[in-house]
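Dear colleague,

Thank you for sharing your sequence with our group. We've completed the structure prediction you requested, and as agreed, I am returning the results in plain text so they can be pasted directly into your records. Please verify that the sequence below matches your submission; if there's any discrepancy, let me know and we will rerun it promptly.
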Amino acid sequence: MKKTTKTAAAKGCAKKKTTNTEKKATPAVTKKTATKATPKTAVTKKAPAKKAPAATKKATKKVTRIVANVDVGWGNMLYIRGEGAGLSWEQGVPMLCENGTEWHWTAETDAEPISFKFLVNDEIWAAGENVTINAGDVHISTPTF
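Please find the predicted structure tokens below.
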């Protein structure tokens, strides 16, 4: 049996009051907590470091210098002709004048030898034989014409 009494509520609504004689059967309410699916943090794997390709053995360039100590006269130039390091016997390459009597020619060359001869104004050949030097050498001479 159920005994209930009505009490007036502040809002004018009737509220049932249950006595101890009756056990109230209330369904068990379990509160489910909503869990949001959290995005998994992306795990980035580092790619293995790429190895540099094996260095291929290249012929190392050598700096070759040829110096001529000669006064060729005001307004004249000293040229060099030959073979190796880009020189040709057909056309001369002008040399750089340092102080009026010191002429320079410099090239980066492979391991091949260089044969050469001096010319004034790319017309008058120096006396004597052709000169041959190894790549990477420095040759200083005093040519005569």
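Summary note from our side: The two ends are 144 Å apart (CA to CA).

Kind regards,
the structure core
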